[in-house]
Amino acid sequence: MGTRLMDPSGHAAAMPTEHRFWLRAEGSAASAGLTGAEARRQLLRDGPNVVERLRRPSVLRQILRRLAEPLVLILIAAAAISAATGDMASLVLIALIVAASIGLETWQEHGAEKAAEALRNSIALTVRVLRDGREQSLRAEDIVRGDVVRLAPGNLVPADGVVLAASGAHADEAILTGEPYPVAKRPGPSRAETMADAHDALFAGTSLVSGEATMLVCETGLATVLGTISTDLAADQPPPAFERGLRRLGLLLVRLTLALVLFVLLVQYALHRPVLESFMFAAALAVGLTPELLPMVTTITLARGAVRLAARRVIVKRLAAIHDLGAMDVLCTDKTGTLTEARISLAVALGPDGRDDPAVLALAAVNSALGGSAGNPLDTAILAAAPEAACGWSALAALPFDFERRRASVAASHDGKAMLIVKGAPEAVLAACVAVDGPGGPQPLDAARRAALDVIHEARAAQGERLLGLAWRALPEAPARLAVSDESDLVFAGFCAFLDPPKPSAAEAIERLGQLGVRVKIISGDAAPVVAHLVAQLGLPAGQVLSGEEIARLTDAALRRRVVATRLFARVSPDQKMRIIRALSEAGHTVGFLGDGINDAPAIRAADAGLSVNTATDVARAAADLILLDNDLGVIADGIAEGRRTYANIMKYVRMGTSSNFGNMLSMALASVLVPFLPMTAVQILLNNLLYDASQIGLPLDEVDADDLATPRNWSIAAIERFTAIMGPLSSLFDLSTFAILLLVFHAGAAQFRTAWFVESMLTQLLVVFVIRTRARPWRSRPARALVATSLGACAAALALALGPWAGLFGFAPLPGHLLALVAALAAAYLLLAEALKRHAMGRAHRARHRARSTHAG
Ligand SMILES: Nc1ncnc2c1ncn2[C@@H]1O[C@H](COP(=O)(O)OP(=O)(O)OP(=O)(O)O)[C@@H](O)[C@H]1O
Ligand SMILES: [Mg+2]
């Protein structure tokens, strides 16, 4: 559970008095809320209610961050030293080139992130607040101290505050205290030293799991308990699939760079070459090798993906989740709303004999009216079927529904007689019953009678009807509070059966996902026969159902073996949903989860791609990486295509960087040994690198082959290494032949050598993109116009710089016609050979499931 707010012994630490806002006097006075004007003034004083320090850094800060990168610093220092020895030109040039590449990067990234952020804002969390005497829906950011906020189950608590009123309110505070069970909340002063004991306080970041509460906001933003520890919490999350791959790629490149730079420095030292010059050369090599555009290319491709997805009504909250969606090979989903219409209606209320019984419906209606929660679809369906049934009843106490107990209870009185009414999943209710209603009054619930009830339950569920059980007990006196232990010695009254028609579009969507290589699994809290019936209705293959009861008995290792082949899971608790996701993930799958309830939030958080819908509860939406504006499995298929598109384009950049760019830098290092002078000056390497970078701006916009969209794709470092190992040396081989011809045949001098090679390496490096951007023949896969423009533009610029009248400024010398022709011929030969070898270098199309292997190997 991390460090959180606990001391080493695991006990919640006492907070300093000034933070214990629940002890302040302000909470004791009931409040009618603020006026709009008061709130605006308060907002100016305290600032917006945000804890995340994830706010985008300013442009200036982004530039400074890039300037402070060690390589750039070394280069600038080296240039400064050479300026001190009289070489002003290289200082100016290096400064200009560094400025240009930083400018390019900052400008591109800034624009892309702004677009993505605007989309995120469109699904901001809203809170019900009392302002100007009426309830309004406001963005959580605009909440200020003194606001009065209303909370319902599934709502995130937007700020720290004290409870003014509550009925059956329980909060999940695990995120702050590590306490796994919901904590009861009620008004009234507490003298609590620790937040775990503060029954009258609600904390930002926690959520209401049941009941209702009204709270007075005492602290907002960074002043909240969450605000003081939010950085710890962020560090607690394991990185998702995309970041894991990116990190491993970074390590690979660092190793390559270090090896090359050390090699050059050692050789130069051994050959007694000038120290400063060698040093600058090595630094320029390192800059040339660093994939400094990788963050920009990934951000832009992902941000563009986000914008395209928005057109399909999918909002991306975490950009990298687009990639994870493309890599996903298993999608788990809950049932209600995704596979069904979520228009739950009451079909019938049955007595224990299986016949219609309006008295059972009346009991259910009293329970729902006095102890249900607004927004719960089952409670809503019951009240719609019997709107008047609760008249004349008054609530005494309630014990709200939770997903572990699967029961909801109320103590209610009618004509002065008190009664406990319990409703819930039939087996959960029956477990608390000792008797059953019969014609002549309650009868003992013996084995035969239990079996008869099970038969009714099974038969109904097998027809796809979701059942709730109802039970009651007379109460000798009115209780002040209810506990779980009160749910005992009950008399079973009967069932309510509900219908929720399947969505016609669901079957088609699941088939489409199957064609994309994504298997769909259903994880439901509902009973097994209901899930099986639905699956049959949708015309999908059923197979075995794994129940929550069985899962509870399985160890993690055993569960890992079972989950892969199982498609249906029933009667699972929120915790078990999360366990299933983890097990799939450990079995090597990239897992998505789509859900909308309080009970789905842990699983959404655990998934690589957490999906929710805009109508879902706050906790589910907060946990999700992607929000569907329409609850439709079909759009997920669109999202998957988008994810794979972005991945394919990012891979093109990676391939360019690790093969042709790496090959060039490798040649440069070798040449520094073989050639009597430095093969390129530091300035020329940097120019080379800048033009190469500029050419890549078109990549995020590139078209993608159908082949790249067909199967789940995930980082495979092994495949990248293979590609590098083949294509890198190929490019070096060509460079070395170029060197040999230039030196031995044409006896080129230093300046001419550098010019010829600059042109050759630019042409090969820039044009090879058209070869390796596709597995097909280049003329069969058309590149995007933007890519053609940036690549050819960079080529033209390189030729102009090296051959134009200003060439001398950069240390270039004029090239005679036959040398130019030679360079062009060599570049063409290289491209042809690269084309011949690329399929071999790319290997078989790797699928996401190979991740398991490469992860364990790496
Ligand atoms: N308001 C309620 N009162 C009593 N019992 C309830 C209530 N809501 C749900 N239950 C019980 O808890 C079980 C699990 O809840 P629910 O079906 O919503 O879980 P779920 O995992 O979200 O299911 P689904 O896959 O259908 O979305 C229900 O099948 C029902 O037996
Ligand atoms: Mg649900």
UniProtKB/TrEMBL annotation:
Family to which the UniProt record says this protein belongs: Belongs to the cation transport ATPase (P-type) (TC 3.A.3) family. Type IIIB subfamily.
Role this protein plays: Mediates magnesium influx to the cytosol.
Superkingdom, taxonomy of origin: Bacteria
Membrane-spanning parts: 252-272, 278-303, 732-750, 786-807, 819-837
Cation-transporting P-type ATPase N-terminal domain location: 17-87
Enzyme Commission (EC) number: 7.2.2.14
UniProt keyword Membrane present: yes
Subcellular location: Cell inner membrane
Protein name per its UniProtKB record: Magnesium-transporting ATPase, P-type 1
Record keywords, A-Z: ATP-binding, Cell inner membrane, Cell membrane, Magnesium, Membrane, Nucleotide-binding, Phosphoprotein, Translocase, Transmembrane, Transmembrane helix
Primary residence: membrane
Membrane association type: Multi-pass membrane protein
Gene: mgtA
Main EC class the enzyme belongs to: translocase
SMART domains according to UniProt: Cation_ATPase_N
ATP-binding listed as a keyword: yes
Any Pfam family the entry gives: E1-E2_ATPase
Catalytic activity: Mg(2+)(out) + ATP + H2O = Mg(2+)(in) + ADP + phosphate + H(+)
